[in-house]
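Tip: read the tokens left to right.
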């Protein structure tokens, strides 16, 4: 199959998912009237997030501009695996829309909550407490599968690990804000995947 087909599909999936995220994040800032400081997670974590985030987002863009520049990290996946990545990416785009429309103005760029934050327990949050982390990292992995680039797949895994490390602090903030309501919510939901 022509590499350009996969590049076009990868671009459509990447820019659609990212566009949904940007739209809902800006809407949350506007609706809440507050823009949270990115320093809430502490300097070391924010430095890591900024540097890692820059590299994480540059690698897909480099692939989209010129795949030859990423040839050194090509895996050589069979075509069906790349098509699986397309399907997974499309599911992630739907999941991104679902999670952002479910949380509304409660979305924040840091582990802190907004002053008027309401606990989201509808939509996907009915079953999963942190779907952004599992869907977001799967979104990156799906792009890596489409692009056939191991480095991007690795970034998806590392992004999940970084968010999993940050999650206890976020949950401590939520327990502080919502108390027993959040503790009960934790009992009936999974952290990153539904509880069975």
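Filled-in amino acids:
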């Amino acid at each position: 199959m022509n590499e350009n087909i996969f590049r076009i599909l990868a671009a459509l999936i990447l820019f659609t998912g990212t566009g949904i995220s940007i739209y809902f994040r800006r809407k949350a800032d506007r609706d809440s009237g507050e823009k949270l400081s990115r320093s809430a997670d502490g300097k070391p974590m924010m430095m890591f997030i900024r540097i890692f985030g820059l590299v994480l987002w540059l690698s897909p863009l480099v692939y989209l501009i010129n795949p030859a520049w990423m040839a050194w990290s090509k895996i050589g996946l069979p075509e069906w695996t790349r098509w699986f990545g397309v399907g997974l990416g499309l599911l992630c785009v739907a999941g991104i829309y679902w999670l952002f429309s479910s949380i509304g103005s409660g979305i924040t760029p840091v582990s802190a909550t907004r002053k008027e934050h309401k606990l989201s327990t509808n939509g996907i949050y009915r079953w999963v407490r942190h779907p952004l982390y599992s869907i977001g990292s799967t979104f990156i992995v799906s792009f890596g599968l489409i692009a056939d680039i191991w480095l991007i797949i690795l970034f998806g895994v590392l992004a999940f690990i970084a968010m999993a490390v940050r999650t206890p602090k976020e949950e401590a903030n939520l327990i502080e804000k919502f108390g027993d309501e959040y503790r009960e919510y934790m009992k009936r939901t999974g952290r990153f995947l539904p509880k069975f």
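The first helix runs from residue 3 to 32. The chain is about 70% helix and 0% strand.
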